[in-house]
């Protein structure tokens, strides 16, 4: 029963090898989906290319459905999975700052790594920028710490905080995704094409 | 030509089809009959623990621990309060078996700081407490082998070995005798007259340690 | 798309196909390791290692770096750093197969390279800052968080895309 490494079903030494392997798959898929192009990524905000939305939402829906099926069939214990902790204002403020950075720079960290690999100089500068950002954050950590560590709600899921049935959440989430895809196509047809 | 046309018609529907498949899969999760999963320890693991020698503490080990004031364990008496008040081991906490799952006692048995040693008159009820505790995933549970009866027979009133027996038995006897003196038993050869002290010091305070959720994996980005 | 031959380099996978594979990778990752994907964590580790190399005492006394420093191991020996190396390799393979590898600055014809690089730097700084505050980026917090229906993941995702749409208007010249 998974997750395999935390349950000691294969030795921990595999961890790094698996990390590289998963990274390769991740990088390959991201690059092949066009996530190494900042103009393609930015398209989602101007309506000329919805690749980000489609890839992102499809991945989220597929993974959540898959994980819950695996849990249902007993291959994976969902309670052992790492749940991203919720720091309410940290998530909101951080997210807002990231959003501005996303539009300004045209990448997010994962995609910028892909673009670095194929020689986009703007991505190199972007990664440098991320590192400067981390540096700034660390140097001013004492000022930011109240936000960083405050408003901790625990490693909660939607089920914990709203008492929703996860299966209905997933079902509704998939409907939202499908509607979003359809809307995206409608919008894209109306927006002036941009070639990049 | 026909094939191509058919293919084109099919392809124009492909996204609708894919969306349908997605929704059916997601809906399937809602529709699937929910089976209550057996939580807690698996049968094999429980068996492994049950046959492990770690499970029992002998009375000699226990008296040794008490005399040397080993701070690493908590004694839990699972008999009813009446028997507990009549006689019990020093520093024991009384958690009657019927109250084992009460919230007020959880802090004593659901923690990782101390070993928990269960005992009852023999080891019957203590074993049941042990199984229940393991079922709930509590750590470091032990059972006093033979319980109070064995404690009485071996520590408080050790049998005098007869002369054919090996030297170790005499050694064991003298250790036990010394231990029983520690626990307040008088022997005729002792000259000093001393009131057997049967004081029951307050049960050890246990700082409740919140059991950490099993979360061996760490963080995201 | 009827663009000229040169821009036909941009023939990418169908986004649904890419998303499907990405979803499978996330499932696989959770199944094997019990955790999700990530990217900014590797950059954080590199910064910590860098600062530790340049100014070790400063790194030890700083409240944030010291969280990731230990005496016996380098901060680079983490899962996410290996994964990030994998991302570089994987993207290089994919880009190489599709013939997309070359040195260049990609930008809208309406702006100069210099402007593009400046905005990339600024965007990077903001994203680095934001990713630390939110404890994860789009992949670590939003994508992997959403896969296990984490509240934080959804909030982060909504905040990122909400604010990005809100400010997109002011950056439009850079992109369209």
Automatic annotation (TrEMBL), chain A:
Record key words, sorted: Membrane, Transmembrane, Transmembrane helix
InterPro entries for the chain: Sulf_transp_TsuA/YedE
Record-annotated membrane-spanning stretches: 12-30, 51-69, 89-116, 123-144, 164-187
Name of this chain's protein: Uncharacterized protein
Pfam families per the UniProt record, alphabetical: Sulf_transp
Keyword Transmembrane listed: yes
Superkingdom of origin organism: Bacteria
TrEMBL record, chain B:
Rhodanese domain boundaries: 69-160
One GO MF term attached to the UniProt entry: thiosulfate-cyanide sulfurtransferase activity
Annotated Gene3D superfamilies: Rhodanese-like domain
InterPro entries: Rhodanese-like_dom, Rhodanese-like_dom_sf
One Pfam short name: Rhodanese
Protein name: Rhodanese-like domain-containing protein
Organism for this UniProt entry: Salinimicrobium sediminis
UniProtKB/TrEMBL annotation, chain C:
Membrane-spanning residues: 12-33, 76-97, 117-134, 146-171
Topology relative to the membrane: Multi-pass membrane protein
Compartments in which it is found: Cell inner membrane
Protein's UniProt keywords contain Disulfide bond: no
PANTHER family: INNER MEMBRANE PROTEIN YEDE (PTHR30574), SULPHUR TRANSPORT DOMAIN-CONTAINING PROTEIN (PTHR30574:SF1)
Family per similarity comment: Belongs to the TsuA/YedE (TC 9.B.102) family.
Protein name from the UniProt record: Sulphur transport domain-containing protein
Lineage: Bacteria, Pseudomonadati, Bacteroidota, Flavobacteriia, Flavobacteriales
